[in-house]
Amino acid sequence: MSRAAAPALFAGVAAGAIALAPAAFGSTGSFVTQPPPPCVNADGTPCVVGPNGVAGPGGAAGAIPGGPGGAAGPEGATGVIPGGPGGTAGPGGAAGAIPGGPGGAAGPEGATGAIPGGPAGTAGPGGVTGTIPGGPSGSAGPGGVEGCIPGVGCIG
């Protein structure tokens, strides 16, 4: 898993675990292992909730085999859909990405985001910068401002 996708995975899984925590921790009844009909998987087999999740004082985690999974605890949360988006959130910030698509991260020191082959930008205490491949780009910060347009020139 890429470093950018790990935070996204963590955030998604945590969000799911947080959403399900009241049911897991607050219920005194028994959990039903079979959902009510007519839940049917794509291959025609009945849907079954398996023993793929855990919850305890340190947090919760769960996964659907071959499907989405996540975890949450005191330090944050993560979630991912295999081959799809993933995210992570915690005290230091949050990040998320779609494989081959946009991704971004934000935290106390700033934020950054990019679309592969498209625009990208970063902002933080030291300033801001942005660019479009083959197009305009610019930066601004305590040292001044600069901007460029290909074929036209730069200022700053």
Automatic annotation (TrEMBL):
Coiled coil: none annotated. The keyword Plastid does not apply. Keywords: Signal. Residues 58-145 are annotated as: Disordered. It comes from the Bacteria. Transmembrane segments: none annotated. The keyword Signal applies. Residues 1-26 form the signal peptide. Residues 58-73, 81-107, 115-145 have a biased composition (Gly residues). This is Collagen triple helix repeat protein. It comes from Mycolicibacterium litorale. The lineage of its organism: Bacteria, Bacillati, Actinomycetota, Actinomycetes, Mycobacteriales.
